[in-house]
Design brief:
The chain is an alpha/beta fold and 387 residues long. The protein has 14 helices and 14 strands. Helix content is 42%, strand content 17%. The chain has a seven-stranded mixed sheet, with helices on both faces. A four-stranded mixed sheet has the order 1-2-3-12. It has a three-stranded antiparallel sheet with strand order 11-14-13.
Length: 387
Amino acid sequence: MKKFLSERERSGTLRFLTPLIRLGHGWVRPLDSDQRLLDFSSNDYLALSEHPEVISASRKYLEMFGAGSGAARLMSGDLEINHLLEQEIAQLKATEAALTFGSGYLANTGIIPALAGRGDLIITDRLSHASIYDGCLLSGARTIRFRHNDLAHLKQILQEKRSQFNNCLVVVESIYSMDGDRCPLIELVELKKDYDFLLMVDEAHATGLYGENGAGIIEEDKVSSGVDIAMGTFGKALGSYGAYAAGSRKLVNFLINKARSFIYSTALPPAVVGATLASLYLVKNEPQLRLDLHEKVTYFKKQLRKNDLHDDPGPSQIIPVMVGDSASALAIAEELQNKHIYVKAVRPPTVPEGTARLRFSITRYHQKENLKECARNLASALRNISA
């Protein structure tokens, strides 16, 4: 342990916790400081965690059903409200059914090993989230990574390897959590016409933000019929906690009986279920929430260009600013914190070696003057590091 920690410290990749006090409206304060910081590392994209209706629903469910569910769903934790939430998710995702999980990590490490095992093939994007990789490892299936968003490489792997395995599962993210770019889902679904595989799409960073009803990129690209398993989370744009899998009724019944992270986990707390239901209602009935966010994202990217930050910021609310080495990324993050901007340096092994970055998450908490000032301070910090 000492050797591992020393090496992480030497390479600038040692992680540590920073206790924060939430001050509201996107502002935080470190526990050991009086400095107010505007949070650019939150995934609370629509600011729903502080929405009065979400808080009210959470409080109501807490008082009605208690603090905890008390058991796993297959024991006595299967409250009616869980089924209500799953019905709402299925309706949003335009699927027959849905199933909730305790977190996005639990969902991916439960769904993937349930669907693939020894003798099967999993093909996933090289930049897929760690929870997807861990699900692949747990499955025991042969796992092959294709170059990021390179469907020609994916097709080549299918041509060369598919016939050697019983079943094949392809897993991608609709929006990648560290690069903020989109998967070409329309073209990917077209591949299913020529190759026999199940397609699983992780919509963690798209749920609530894209599509006519806020269902995600699957809805926006109109490929619902070509996606076998849609997975997403409640802890990002929905401002709550937990995750879901959506698909056919057969799929959900299969996961109930096979996904170990579902079978052996306590059900979501009632207050969390109430908050998520309220967030889903707001997403479906108040599209202006996501329109406001996208307007702010566009404005921030415009400010980056004005300050000669030419990195392609991608099409989503996740905007990585590449730095390269971990020490420089940490130094820039520290300089920005002195300017009341809280953004985390993302370093290996979360991202590949040589691609340390600052990962900016734009939320509805951010005002245009905040975004303008942030871009200006970021440009200054980058110049100071390179000087």
